[in-house]
Amino acid sequence: MILHVYTSDDEWLRAASEFIFSALSEALEVRNALEAREANEAGNAPDVRNALDARNASQMPLRSLHLCLAGGTTPKPIYKALARDKRSAEIADARSIHLWVGDEREAELGSGFRNSEMIAEAFSYAPTTFVLHKWPAGQRVLAAHTYEEELLPYASERIHANQPIFDLTILGMGEDGHTAGIFSLDDFQSPVDSQKPGAILPSRLVMFTEAPREPKSRMTLAPEILRSSRHILVLMQGLEKVRVLIANLVGERDDPIKHFLDETCEAIARI
User: Fold this and answer.
1) Is the separation of the CB atoms in 165 and 154 below 8 Å?
2) What is the pTM of this model?
3) How confident is the model at residue 203, as a pLDDT?
């Protein structure tokens, strides 16, 4: 895990943007290499090429790019910069870019609490089209079920192909060390049947948690789903948060964020 610390908003924004585009470029190269290898194996046989084209059409999750985004206020300027950057349009011309929301609050539309609305607003100025998967409004039991059903085909296809679900997961962190909608280490304890014999995916993609303050009812992608990512980027602002992160790195604390700080993770902080 690598920690980058900056003292100006411009430097922080630039570093985060470059990290994101580096991850997207890498993912694009992986997709291109996969298709080139398949095309080479297919050769010039028309029947093989037709079969390959049909399979490609049925495997869009493998061909498109998938990002899981953090909510809150910290990443919003980075999302706006990503939306307006011409590199996004160049990548989107080659591959569709899907945006998933890592966690959501059970709150009314227009309340200012919903992460999906913040992300939608940030990307509304994009000259290109991003495919945003928003959590449905309403009671969280139905919303979580609907979101899980939407994610399941993508996740299953990626896992079956021995690929991480996401090309990049962006996380935030609170001063208490929580991340996404995960506030307690108890949230990492899977239910008894979460890894069923012979199952490729855990039975839960989405879980319910309780925040210490309103709106308390939360929905979040499960930790094992968030961690199924080629890269993880933690964004934060403030010296106190950096101290909390370092305390988790050196073993002085054991907060939820600690369980995402592995070799795939980098943190970019502004103090």
Assistant:
1) yes
2) 0.89
3) 64
